[in-house]
Write a structure and sequence with these properties.
heterodimer, A: mainly beta, globular, B: mainly beta, four-stranded antiparallel β-sheet
């Protein structure tokens, strides 16, 4: 049972344009959502997060949007840069269990 | 510097042998986690521990064992019962206690069983 889903395995975007990565979840008990960036053979690094009581959080070029009614979140990267090319994972946390559940990842390629 | 250290980075073992992956953190985090990454499968939770001397099975615990004798350490043993042990293993830690916060990851261990 995949509780966190990233339905797009890959995405290509031109440098300078917007990258939009999507994530869906099924468990309404999740109360915190996170995005991680990962390079091959390295551990994921934290990018940005959002609490379930908010619908938007912004940090520089990165913005995460949360639509609780649709159980959907998205990560916007504007403007996209070649260094953003990596695999992006969304994750959800149910703070009562301390379990971080990850999606399958989306490989972003930013073309110069 | 504070962080999570996984060792070794690459590990080779013969089929049928048990192998233990090390994970140490100096972040004073209560919670620690082990994930496995396979191509196209994302990060799947093997075991997690919220506090010393306590741990819980994740989604794919079969064939693995852990211990949490010290707050700083959470070693993972891949036993001969694990049918597909070749994978990239990631250890993480976080502040527990109900805080909404991120998990920090180590650099991973690539295990290859031949």
């Amino acid at each position: 049972d995949q509780q966190v889903k990233q339905n797009s395995p890959s995405l290509s975007v031109q440098e300078g344009r917007i990258s939009i990565l999507n994530c869906d979840y099924t468990n309404s008990m999740f109360d915190y959502f996170l995005w991680y960036k990962k390079y091959p053979a390295e551990g994921p690094t934290f990018l940005i997060s959002i609490s379930s009581i908010k619908d938007k959080n912004e940090d520089g070029r990165f913005t995460v949007f949360l639509n609780k009614s649709a159980k959907h979140l998205s990560l916007h990267i504007v403007p996209s840069q070649p260094g953003d090319s990596a695999v992006y994972f969304c994750a959800a946390l149910h703070s009562g269990t301390y379990k971080y559940i990850f999606g399958t990842g989306t490989r972003l390629k930013v073309l110069a | 510097d504070g962080g999570i250290t996984q060792s070794p980075k690459y590990l080779f073992r013969k089929e049928g042998q048990n192998v233990t992956l090390s994970c140490e953190q100096n972040l004073n985090h209560d919670a620690m986690y082990w994930y496995r990454q396979d191509p196209g499968q994302g990060l799947r939770l093997i075991y997690y521990s919220q506090i010393v001397n306590d741990f819980q099975k994740g989604d794919i615990a079969e064939g693995y064992s852990v211990s949490r004798e010290k707050k700083e350490s959470f070693p993972l043993t891949v036993t001969s019962a694990q049918k597909n042990p070749t994978a990239f293993y990631l250890c993480a830690s976080s502040i527990a206690g109900g805080a909404n916060t991120e998990a920090f990851f180590g650099q991973g261990t690539r295990l290859t069983v031949v």
